[in-house]
Here is the input.
Amino acid sequence: MRMASEQRIAASRQRVWEALNDPEVLRSSIPGCNSLDKVSDERFDATVEVKVGPIGARFKGTVSLTNLDPPNQYTLILEGNGGIAGSVKGSADVRLTEDSGGTMITYVVDAQVGGRMAQLGGPIIDATAKQLAGKFFSRFGENVAPSAAPAAAAKAPSVAAGTGAAPAIRPAAAPRPGGGFPLVWMLSSVIVALAGFMVGRSEGAATSDWAGLAVGMLVVVVAAAAFEYGRRAATPVVTLDNELLRRLIDEARK
Here is the structure.
């Protein structure tokens, strides 16, 4: 199997080189990686679970670094054994170049797969390798590239502290219960209605009950109408007639 590709990482070449030699970064970036221990500066021991088509296996192996030229390039020597599922041996030439403030990683992989996995055929193995490489570089880029969130958060206080700071936005006052009709008016309405009802009963006639209640309700309606008129009168009302509309259009054209 041979695979060649490249991937851009939004970080400096030195930062990418250090991350490619950091066990913690690699462990969180490699799909299915259970463990990755740095034995020396040129060797890692790894345990990775991989599924190729219908076959899944846990590979135990080593990764050795040769042809070291920091922070420009190196060669990875891969050896892994997955038991009856198969084995993997190969190498990967990795090169780092600067690219408009970021780093371009170019790699060429040569690998041999043996055992049951080799029986699946080249297309399945190639597709799986490309998928795993895509997941690795996606996670690696997230782990290495600096986050934009702290920079955005740091700009927020500077706006308020500057001389041209925008005025603070005050929250709108919550509307009063009852759509603006004061509670005192509701209580007054009930009291007036009861007073009218009692006046009617004091006359001693059955029909006076309804007459007293009608008087009380009339007082309530008049009071409510007066309150609504006063509330609306406090709000300025602008009538847009033809003369005013023509004057506004003439001023807009000047």
